[in-house]
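On to our target:
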Amino acid sequence: MADDLDAFQPLHRPDASAPLRGLTVLVLEDSRFASDALRLMCLRSGARVRRADCLRSAERHLSSYRPSVIIVDLGLPDGSGLDLIRRLGSLVPRVPVVLATSGDPMLASAACGAGAQGFLCKPIESLAAFQSAVIKALPRHARTDRNTMRDVVIRPDSMALREDLAQADVYLASGVTGSRLDYVAQFLAGLGRSARDRDLQHAAEALRGLSPAETAARVDVVRGLVSARLCAGD
């Protein structure tokens, strides 16, 4: 397996039109909407990109190759991204750059304490801010000729948003409770934040910490909002 320096040896040098050329980015993100934004940013920047949607999938990727950059969502269906960030520090060869992402800016210090070199707060929309975060986290020798492009706002595919909403509706319809319901609540709250949908965000945030009697009524409210948004796209 290649060593750390090999991760930064592009066949063609990065330039103003492709400042992240030569990098392979693994995006660990359960939301298709959020991961599509990151995919577009990587491609616009000249980087290669792969996606994993859970910790288990990320471990499979990492067992066969080392990306030069991994972006880890902190709220995942099978655990916390913080646990993976801690484990990445002991891998040999290591992943040179680890960035964390979340809609909760209060988690930035926890992510950096676990070993991340940077934090991307959702929604991630600015191409220049994304490129700057990646370049800043690179080893010094790998920053040469890498400068951010003129800033643009990246808009992910609306179909990815619908897929996320449909998946969340399946979860809610199955009668999830406890920690699983907490996961769905944070997933939908993050989706609402990324889509600038405050009603959905706030309704999802209100799902957490409820008694069993309160939960059923609140889930019905959230499902109604999800259904309305799915119908609006038909």
